[in-house]
Design brief:
Structural class: alpha+beta
Shape: elongated
Strand order of the largest sheet: 1-2-3-4
Oligomer: single chain
Strand content: 5-15%
Number of strands: 16
Radius of gyration: 39 Å
Largest sheet: 4 strands, antiparallel
Distance between the termini: 89 Å
Helix content: 40-55%
């Protein structure tokens, strides 16, 4: 630099974004327009020889030209052409730059780079699956574009050269940058030079220096492993010689090599991923198969083209495309505190999913009860529901930083599973790595730096997983309580019982009034059914009392469900948000800046974890609360099952009223002679029997609001034939109620 960089004109210098061996990057913001850019400058040429300076200048101009060409692809950082935006500012930057090379001006990405993301303590065991997928998808498009459209091999793929831009909606876009080592790769041309960054370049780069664009596939595989696991796959703590010798000898299906804790000079080959990661089981299996392709030491096999493709697409890309298209349904089985994941397709049936759940939880298929999180787009599980309906694309990103940035509450899983019958709960014991088990013994003495760092990562995974299990368990029982509350609110049982009470009470009361007035004002009618009437009154009182108890039962269930919703919300705050396993404290103490843990600190951390775990299982209210919700659900179901019996009793009461009314009218089978009957007044009210008939007709039409107009006194003696009509009305009412 000619001088110290400072703000200029409308451009505010916000600070330095980073620097490497020969360059640094500055961040600028336009004062009025708000546009943000990044400028890349050479910081030192004096330490280079003349030949090195020439080579650097060539690569710099190459990168400058390419960045100005990459304007459209969203996953490659585009150059900003200041010639069009602010030529005076361009001249200012170039005028203060050394070696007469143009300053490289790039779009600004506000999320930093992937190296910074991986160094965040919360990502010590790798990123969540969603982010791993997004990164690989972005790199696949960017690298393929460079290879096929630009004829460029990047040659320096690494997390440092993947930058992140977060939009206003909180979504992150990953972009490839830094083309200082990029070089054209015409077909059938081999590159000859040792370039790249240690741990990311392919074996052939060091072995022979003769290679092709398949070196980028190797680097892509290394990055994929690192972002998924949190560590590099091939003994990164060893000398370059040991690394390259191990890579050249490794079988093609080996995806990682680690030191032997008992003997650091001896190495172990691994065909599978370690257990300490955040990937779903079905995706991790396919991901492992893909890593065996991208991390094949033979560059010919690594770079082979898919034979069944219409276009000439490398196998490493075609298989990655299939991997990224996989849809994984996430489930938490609450009774066994077990997270389940299943790859789902459009043609997968619900029966198939239920069999898989039964197999993995040891529950009977008929006992499996599914609960959807609040705001699940599928709303409700029906007999026609398919597993693909339960998959929610928007809920894949469960990372803490995304939840914090977007301020959205994303469920930890897409479905919760409960055991419909019984309230048995079991919690699996924590799974410790072999390294943890060995180091927890008093005889283990090694203090190797790489080992203690790995030990810290393993311990962090255990406590993080248990914390996540607690949060999933509490979220599950909270959703169970919420669903029960909604089920009670939406249930028609109270309305059904209230309707039966109202209609039956109206008919019974009017019949009682009719009998009273008949006895008082029409002594010619002989009612010889006192015993039947008393039995009817007793039955009516019994069913009324039972119905009112049933209503009280449903009200009690609703109140308790509301209480359980509040109680589980509080538990979620107490045990989830308050970090009972002290994950955040562990991160701050042992994982910042690639930290490690001593054997003594590790053993103490194991003791503290054990105490918290045992206290939670033995004395904690989590399972107790879950069982109470199960009992409440069963209690509500018992009341629900009693409703048909109550309706049957109401129908019996109505039948008894019909029979008794018919007997009353039959008692008037020998009416007085016409000459002895009082004259019928046209203005007189209709006979009470006909009023009852009319009332029953109205009840049948609109039973929600039955009439309760009082009967007039019996002033006329009327038609016995009305008995059949009244009986039909009662029967019609019973048919309506029983539908």
């Amino acid at each position: 630099m000619v001088g110290k960089m400072e703000s200029w004109g409308n451009w505010l210098l916000c600070g330095e974004l980073g620097q490497g061996g020969f360059g640094k990057v500055h961040h600028w913001r336009h004062r009025s327009g708000g546009q943000e850019i990044a400028t890349k400058h050479i910081k030192d040429l004096n330490s280079l020889s003349a030949d090195q300076q020439i080579k650097l200048s060539e690569r710099w101009n190459q990168e400058y030209n390419w960045t100005r060409e990459f304007q459209q692809l969203p996953h490659i950082v585009a150059g900003v052409i200041l010639d069009e935006v602010d030529p005076a500012f361009r001249d200012f930057l170039n005028g203060r730059h050394i070696a007469k090379l143009p300053v490289i001006v790039l779009e600004y990405c506000n999320g930093g780079d992937m190296r910074k993301r991986l160094l965040s303590p919360e990502n010590a065991n790798g990123l969540v699956e969603f982010e791993v997928r997004e990164i690989l998808g972005a790199l696949r498009l960017a690298v393929y574009f460079l290879h096929s459209k630009c004829g460029v091999c990047h040659r320096d793929l690494k997390p440092d050269n993947i930058v992140i831009h977060r939009g206003s909606d909180g979504k992150k876009v990953y972009k490839l940058t830094d083309f200082g080592l990029a070089r054209g790769t015409p077909d059938k041309t081999m590159l000859q030079s040792v370039v790249g960054t240690r741990n990311y370049f392919a074996p052939e780069v060091v072995e022979s220096g003769i290679y092709n664009k398949a070196v980028d596939y190797w680097s892509l595989g290394i990055i994929a492993y690192e972002v998924a696991i949190g560590e590099l796959p091939f003994i990164p703590h060893q000398t370059p010689k040991n690394i390259i010798m191990s890579l050249l000898k490794k079988p093609r299906d080996i995806i990682a090599i680690t030191e032997d804790p008992a003997d650091p000079s001896r190495f172990r080959n691994h065909k599978h991923l370690p257990n300490e990661h955040h990937l779903s089981r079905p995706w991790a299996d396919k991901f492992t198969q893909w890593l065996r392709v991208s991390l094949d030491s033979d560059q010919k096999r690594r770079g082979q083209v898919a034979s069944d493709e219409v276009q000439s697409v490398p196998v490493v890309f075609s298989s990655l495309d299939q991997l990224l298209q996989m849809k994984v349904l996430t489930i938490f089985a609450v009774n066994s505190s077990k997270r389940l994941e299943y790859a789902v397709t459009d043609d997968m049936t619900k029966e198939c999913l239920m069999r898989d759940i039964a197999r993995d939880t040891k529950m009977a298929v008929e006992d499996i009860y599914l609960v959807l999180p609040t705001f699940h787009p599928h709303k409700k599980i029906t007999p026609s529901t398919k597993p693909i309906d339960l998959y929610v694309e928007e809920w894949r990103d469960t990372s803490k930083d995304t939840r914090k940035w977007t301020k959205r509450s994303i469920p930890p899983v897409m479905v919760y599973v409960f055991q419909g019958k019984g309230t048995e709960y079991s919690v699996p014991e924590p799974v410790f790595s072999t390294l943890m088990l060995n180091c927890n013994g008093s005889k283990f003495k090694s203090e190797e730096r790489w080992l203690l760092k790995r030990l810290a990562l393993d311990m962090h995974f255990v406590i993080s997983k248990e914390q996540a299990n607690v949060e999933m368990f509490l979220s599950g029982i909270n959703e169970h309580a919420l669903e029960l509350e909604d089920e009670i609110i939406a249930s028609p049982y109270k309305d059904i019982i209230n309707k039966q009470l109202l209609t039956t009470a109206c008919v019974f009361n009017q019949l009682e009034k009719l009998r009273t007035e008949a006895n008082a004002e029409s002594p010619s009618i002989q009612l010889n059914d006192s015993a039947e009437w008393e039995r009817l009154k007793t039955s009516y009182q019994v069913i009324t009392d039972s119905a009112n108890k049933l209503l009280a039962h449903f009200d009690s269930c609703f109140r308790e469900a509301r209480n359980k919703v509040n109680a589980t919300k509080q538990l979620l705050q107490d045990y989830g948000e308050k970090d009972i396993f002290n994950v955040n404290g562990f991160q701050r103490r042992y994982l910042r800046n690639g930290g490690s843990i001593s054997l003594g600190e590790f053993r103490e951390a194991v003791k503290e974890f054990g105490k918290t775990y045992q206290k939670l299982q033995n004395d904690g209210p989590l399972v107790k609360e879950a069982k109470m919700i199960d009992t409440l659900h069963l209690h509500f179901a018992t009341g629900r099952l009693a409703v048909p019996t109550a309706i049957e009793k109401f129908e019996q009461i109505k039948s008894d009223i019909s029979k008794l009314l018919l007997e009353m009218l039959k008692s008037a089978a020998s009416p007085p002679t016409i000459s002895s009957m009082p004259p019928i007044s046209i203005s007189a009210p209709p006979p009470a029997v006909l009023q009852l008939s009319d009332e029953m007709r109205r009840l049948t039409v609109n039973t929600m609001h039955p009439s309760s107009d009082p009967f007039d006194s019996i002033s006329t003696y009327n038609v016995i034939a009305e008995a059949e009509l009244i009986n039909q009305m009662l029967e019609a009412e019973m048919e309506v109620d029983s539908v």
